[in-house]
Design goal:
The chain has about 210 residues and is α/β, with parallel strands linked by helices. The protein has six helices and eight strands, in the order ααβββαββαβαβαβ. The chain starts with 7 loop residues before the first helix and ends in a 7-residue tail after the last strand.
């Protein structure tokens, strides 16, 4: 039996129509924390809503955000009302927001600011601790998970900009209980053994 493949456009259009037929997705309330907020020159607003485990892209067109009584910003916890739809060209789904209300400052953003303030009081951001980054490092140490796309992205970008660079990966957990201690141990090992000219500590974009 001969199989007739469909085009990407046909697949995306099919998925878009399926999503559009779901009544629940046409009028949905979602709560989350704003990140990657962009107030575009066109008047449209683009941002991401996230919680501890997931995220979704959102857009709020000018006609709707003109009704807002506040300016959204990163770290703000909100409730949005809108429609989930597929952007056929890119094959991604997102929330088209029609209304938004404040729901307090996001817990993640609050925790970030508390940690930042704590480290500032400890003097860890003082200029005396900062060192100049080598212009063309020969060895780049990378502390991240050995699985996932982040290490491939680092290798691709680094070798494209500096073909002679050597990437030294030291796998560490970058989330979950005990991750902080493992990362600190890996940084200490890299420094003590002089394993790299610079060190990158990275994680994927899943919770960004």
């Amino acid at each position: 039996m001969e199989i007739t493949p469909i085009t990407i456009t046909e697949l995306n259009r099919y998925i878009k129509e399926k999503v559009a037929q779901d009544e629940f997705l046409q009028n949905v309330y979602i709560k989350g924390e704003i990140s990657n907020f962009k107030n575009h020159y066109t008047g449209h607003m683009y941002f991401t809503l996230k919680d501890e485990n997931s995220l979704i892209k959102c857009i709020m067109f000018k006609a709707y955000n003109a009704r807002l009584k506040f300016m959204p910003k990163d770290g703000m916890k909100v409730v949005v009302f809108g429609t989930v739809a597929v952007y056929e060209k890119d094959g991604v789904y997102q929330v088209y927001c029609k209304a938004m209300k404040e729901d307090g400052i996001g817990d993640l953003y609050t925790a970030y600011n508390e940690l930042k303030e704590k480290l500032q009081k400890e003097g860890l951001f003082d200029q005396k601790y900062k060192k100049r980054i080598p212009y063309m490092p020969k060895i780049v140490g990378v502390l991240t998970s050995k699985t996932g796309s982040v290490i491939r992205d680092i290798i691709n970008v680094s070798t494209r900009r500096n073909p002679n660079v050597y990437i030294r990966l030291l796998p560490v957990p970058v989330q979950g209980e005990g991750a902080g201690e493992k990362i600190a141990e890996a940084i200490k090992l890299m420094n003590e053994k002089n394993l790299a000219d610079v060190i990158i500590v990275a994680r994927g974009r899943r919770f960004s």
